[in-house]
C-alpha cells in the first residue's frame, strides 16, 4: 500500500488504483516513531484513537525507504498546523490557558485533566527501582513485576498522587507537609499500565543517563490515572510545538503616492528672440550711460 500525507490527513491507498484504504486525521495521532538503526530503520508506527470504538490502536509499517523521512514529514505537518492555528489567532497570547481543547487529540476524552488545574487519585505506592532504558513496555513490565515480587502488599504505602500539567507528586495525605516523591512532567520519558490493570508505572529521567521507574496500584483500575498523566504529557508536547512555531511576520504596508514623480523636469520652451535695437535707440542708450557715468 501507499502512505500519503496530505493537508491534515494520513491516508493509506491501494498501490494499483489508489483506492483509499484508511484515512487518519493527523490531529488524532497521539505518538509516532521509527525503529532503531540496527536493521529496523525502515519500520514506522503511530498510535491513534479509533473513531468508532475510541480505543487506541498502534499501526506498524515496513517501508521501502528509511522511515525517518515519514516521521520528519509528519513532524513538519504538525508544526505547520500549529503555525496556521496561531496565525488565525494572532491577538491571543500563546499560553496553555488560551489553547482550545479542539487543538488537542480527544478520542479518549483525556482532556479533563487539562480543564481541571489538578487531579488527585488515591493509590498505593509500591516502590521504585532503576531501569536500563528510558522507554519501552518491556522495560516497564519488567520493572513492575520485579517490584511486585520483591515487596509484600502490607508494605505498600497508601498515598494520593497529584497530577497537574507541570508536576506529578505523591503525598501521604492532604495534611502532608512535603511530598513523598515528585517529578516534573517534562522529565517523564514513558508511562503505561501493566499486565494487571491495577498497576501503573512511569519512567523518569534522573540525568546523566539514569532512569528510574515508579510503580503504583490504583483501584478500581489505573485507566483514569494513566489518561490524566498522558494528558499532562500531551500539554507539554503542545507547548513545545507552540514554542517551536516561528512568530507571525508583520506585514509592512507601503503607501503609494498618488502624485507621480518624474525622474527629470521637461526642458523649458525656448524664449522668444528679442526684437533688434535700431541705431537711434542704441545711440540714445549710450548717451544715457555716459551721462550717468559723468555725474557719478
From TrEMBL:
KW Repeat (keyword) present: yes
SUPFAM superfamilies named in the record: PH domain-like
Gene Ontology terms for molecular function: amyloid-beta binding
Gene Ontology cellular component terms for the protein in this record: cytoplasm; nucleus
Keywords: Repeat
Region (Disordered) location: 248-279
Biased composition range(s): Pro residues: 266-276
Protein name, UniProt field: Amyloid-beta A4 protein-binding family B member 3
Classification of source organism: Eukaryota, Metazoa, Chordata, Craniata, Vertebrata
Amino acid at each position: 500500500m501507499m502512505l500519503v500525507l496530505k493537508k491534515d490527513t494520513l491516508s493509506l491507498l491501494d498501490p494499483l488504483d489508489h483506492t483509499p484504504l484508511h484515512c487518519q486525521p493527523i490531529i488524532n495521532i497521539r505518538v509516532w516513531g521509527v525503529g532503531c538503526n540496527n536493521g529496523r530503520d525502515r519500520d514506522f508506527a503511530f498510535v491513534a484513537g479509533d473513531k468508532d470504538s475510541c480505543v487506541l490502536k498502534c499501526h506498524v509499517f515496513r517501508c521501502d525507504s528509511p522511515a525517518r523521512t515519514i516521521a520528519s514529514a509528519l513532524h513538519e505537518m504538525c508544526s505547520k498546523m500549529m503555525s496556521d492555528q496561531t496565525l488565525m489567532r494572532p491577538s491571543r497570547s500563546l499560553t496553555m490557558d488560551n489553547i482550545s481543547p479542539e487543538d488537542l487529540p480527544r478520542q479518549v476524552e483525556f482532556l479533563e485533566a487539562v480543564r481541571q488545574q489538578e487531579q488527585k487519585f488515591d493509590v498505593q505506592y509500591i516502590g521504585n527501582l532503576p531501569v536500563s532504558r528510558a522507554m519501552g513496555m518491556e522495560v516497564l513490565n519488567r520493572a513492575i513485576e520485579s517490584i511486585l515480587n520483591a515487596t509484600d502488599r502490607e508494605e505498600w504505602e497508601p498515598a494520593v498522587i497529584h497530577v497537574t500539567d507541570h508536576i506529578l507528586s505523591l503525598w501521604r495525605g492532604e495534611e502532608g507537609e512535603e511530598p513523598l516523591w515528585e517529578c516534573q512532567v517534562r522529565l517523564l520519558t514513558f508511562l503505561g499500565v501493566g499486565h494487571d490493570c491495577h498497576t501503573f508505572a512511569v519512567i523518569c529521567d534522573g540525568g546523566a543517563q539514569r532512569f528510574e521507574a515508579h510503580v503504583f496500584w490504583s483501584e478500581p483500575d489505573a485507566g483514569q490515572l494513566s489518561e490524566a498523566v498522558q494528558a499532562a504529557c500531551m500539554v507539554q508536547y503542545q507547548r513545545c510545538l507552540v514554542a517551536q512555531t516561528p512568530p507571525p511576520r508583520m506585514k509592512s504596508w507601503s503607501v503609494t503616492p498618488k502624485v507621480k514623480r518624474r525622474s527629470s523636469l521637461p526642458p523649458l520652451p525656448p524664449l522668444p528672440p528679442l526684437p533688434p535695437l535700431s541705431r537711434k535707440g542704441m545711440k540714445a542708450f549710450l548717451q544715457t550711460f555716459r551721462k550717468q557715468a559723468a555725474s557719478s
